[in-house]
Amino acid sequence: MLIQLLLQQPAAALSIVQRTPVWVWGLFAGLVLLGLIQLRQREIGWRRAALPSLGLALFSAVSLGADLSASPSAGLALAVWLLAASAMLVVGSLRAPRAGTRYDATTGRFQLPGSVVPLLTILSIFLVKYGVGVELAMQPGLRHDARFALGLAATYGAFSGLFAARPLTLWRLAQARTTA
After folding, report:
1. 8-state DSSP, 82
2. What would the pLDDT profile of 55-77 be if each residue is shown by its tens digit?
3. Is the dihedral of CA 143, 136, 22, 60 positive or negative?
4. How far apart are CA 135 and CA 144, in angstroms?
5. Ramachandran quadrant class, 93 (left: phi over 0; alpha: psi -120 to 50; beta: rest)
6. Cα 66 from chain centroid (whole Å)
7. pLDDT grade, residue 9 (50/70/90)?
8. DSSP type of residue 104
9. Residue 82: CB partners within 8 Å, gap ≥ 6?
């Protein structure tokens, strides 16, 4: 309904943005900053590499719970979230580390090349969550729609797994360097 509304009445976007709580824009700014940091080459430890992924997975799970707490499909949605997150974690972690990624076993730190992928992933998660929030405000009954619930769970889970694959790939790189 949201996309249809915006296509038919583009001016509605201004009303939606104006009615968005201020804290959402603060969260958006913080997430953009987190993504922009990922654009430049940097040296970090494994925990610092893992924390954003864990934070976004937690945000995803909490969002799913908040969006579907009244849904009769909530339990099944959680299972779909776990399945999608696991599948994307496996698929994403099978890839080799990004070219230019190095691990220094003496310092326990990674040298990471800059990448736009984390920024795009973060923005995608935010836009999906924002769109879902607007859609649920316009159509609260969607919380009880099993197709909506399961699609949302799969989307949030896929993003979580994709994001979590990166620190897993780094951990595997570190393991390979320390045992070699």
Report:
1. H
2. 878 888 888 888 877 778 888 88
3. positive
4. 13
5. alpha
6. 16
7. confident
8. E
9. 157
Range 125-133 contact pairs with CB under 8 angstroms and sequence separation of 24 or more: 125/31, 125/56, 125/59, 125/60, 125/156, 125/159, 125/163, 126/27, 126/28, 126/31, 128/155, 128/156, 128/159, 129/59, 129/63, 130/20, 130/24, 131/2, 132/63, 132/67, 133/67
- For 85-103, the three-class secondary structure string (H helix, E strand, C coil) is HHHHHHHHHCCCCCCCCEE
Smallest Cα–Cα separation from 52: which of 169, 174, 124, 160? Answer: 160
Cβ-based neighbour number of residue 58 at 10 Å: 11
Q: What is the pTM of this model?
A: 0.80
Strand order across the 42-45 sheet:
42-45, 109-112, 102-104
Single out the residue of 2, 60, 6 nearest to residue 31, CA to CA: 60
Nearest to 51 by CA among 164, 149, 132, 155: 164
Q: Residue 108: left if φ>0, alpha if ψ -120 to 50, beta else—which one?
A: left
Other CB atoms closer than 10 Å to residue 19's CB: what's the count?
9
What's the pLDDT at 112?
92
Burial of 160 (0-12, 13-18, 19+ CB in 10 A): buried
